[in-house]
Amino acid sequence: MSVLRPLDKLPGLNTATILLVGTDDVLLQQLAGSMLKEDCASELKVHLAKSLPLPSNVNRPRIDLIVFVVNLHSQHSLRNVEESLHHVDASFFLGKESHCSVHRNTVVKLAHTYRSPLLFCDLEVEGFRTTMAQRLVRMLQICAGHVPGVSALNLLSLLRSTENPSLEDL
Amino acid sequence: MDETVAEFFRRTILKIPITEMMTVLKAWDFLSENHLQTVNFRQRKESLVQDLVLLCEEKRASLNDAALLDIIYTQFHRHQKVWDVFQMSRRPGEDIDLFDMEQFKSSFKKILQRALKNVTVSFRDTEENAVWIRIAWGTQYRKPNQYKPVYVVYYSQTPYAFVASSLLKSNLPLLGQALTVASKHHQIVKMDLRSRYLDSLKAIVFKQYNQNFETHNSTTPLQERSLGLDINIVDSRIIHENRVEKERIQRVTQEIFGDYPQPRLEFAQYKLETKFKSDLNRGILAEREEPLRCLVKFSSPHLLEALKSLAPAGIADAPLSPLLTCIPNKGMNYFKIRDK
């Protein structure tokens, strides 16, 4: 149970669960609060974790989306995420994982390596945080399969940033 | 009244913010209620100050009265100065007579006046057996400079004195000597502790900071008393995966820092004189005999509260380094670290 797998559990009825991983507890909690304020047809559940692996003796629902939150003011935060990434099964990366970062560059490389969508946001500002929360809620609904016609893998190709081509040239 | 004294009055009164003017003047108690009523406090500050200076001249206020007003202003604005802490000691086995405040003051003044003809010394008693001393220094040939005074707060029942100096460091040895002899001590030593917040320095040095001022309901579980994260109000749809770890961090933090508000310091400074240690075998700094000299300084509006919130905020691991957590216990915020 030390590696997170995307499809090893049955989904809950109309439930979508997101896992936010990051060292900055207060910010994660605020982001979770903003997400839960959003109007959403599905029942949302937010799990907050400092790092992976998750404690194994807990009964938890299937996780539909993992978001790693990196604070670029802190080397500790980045290293924590790098280590946690080892504990995520490869199939999660097909659309069910993304990075949300509080500032820039090493993270761009990291996200590119894992082919993960990278979102930037200043989570301390209320307005930006609400916008990010809205985006995450939409992404979560798609990953949980609650939006007909769009799958997580579709979303992944749609989220490819246009900056990526320059990195692929390296 | 002497021109210089009048100017000194004017500048001292001008420093006082209008909102505090009444309070300070009442504490000074030189101008009575009746006198104060003759002044219009609603005019422009410059005119108000002029009126007050004229009133002082009428009442034949002296330099000492002005110095007293300066002390009171500083007592209201003590955080504008940076305070050092000095500790005095007696010879082992020395007999301690009962402390006589008046004798201390006259002895202190005499010592300074004998050494430097031109010096202004003023005293103001406060509660807790403490005295505020203001010293304006001159030289053999120059009158005292009233605008760069040194303040000393001495708690007579303790061996501690707090000193706020302006930049004239040359007179500190004389000051130390006067304090030591007048208070019947043998030696004085400067502690490695400095801050703007006199009350916090007091709390640290007199070990009064670990008292709970609020009544804590100790039956509330640890999480609900946690720092800033109000888990009670939190949605039940938010689940903390690392609850066990969070509780451990809260517990460790509480063991180290306690439940009480921390005394206020603005910085901690660590002077390293240790040899450079490196994993890489080759490096410019690696194979030197002399220690690497390096200074690390932590600054914050409230350093100890910031350190206390580091682990719960996820920025550092708990427990924190003892170099950081020993600050109030050891009563130091300047450290010199050498190789053992």
TrEMBL record, chain A:
Keyword annotations of the record: Centromere, Chromosome, Nucleus
Chief place where the protein resides: nucleus
Protein origin, superkingdom: Eukaryota
Subcellular localization, as worded in the UniProt entry: Chromosome, Centromere; Nucleus
A Pfam family that the UniProt record links to this protein: CENP-M
PANTHER family assigned: CENTROMERE PROTEIN M
Name of the protein in its database record: Centromere protein M
Species annotation: Vicugna pacos (Alpaca)
UniProtKB/TrEMBL annotation, chain B:
Signal peptide per UniProt: none
Any one cellular-component term (Gene Ontology): chromosome, centromeric region
Keywords of this entry: Centromere, Chromosome, Nucleus
Superkingdom of the organism of origin: Eukaryota
Subcellular location(s) of the protein: Chromosome, Centromere; Nucleus
Cross-referenced InterPro entries: CENP-NAC/CAD_complex (IPR052011), Chl4/mis15/CENP-N (IPR007902)
GO annotation, biological process: CENP-A containing chromatin assembly; chromosome segregation
Family of this protein: Belongs to the CENP-N/CHL4 family.
Protein name: Centromere protein N isoform X5
Species per Swiss-Prot/TrEMBL record: Vicugna pacos (Alpaca)
Lineage, broadest ranks: Eukaryota, Metazoa, Chordata, Craniata, Vertebrata
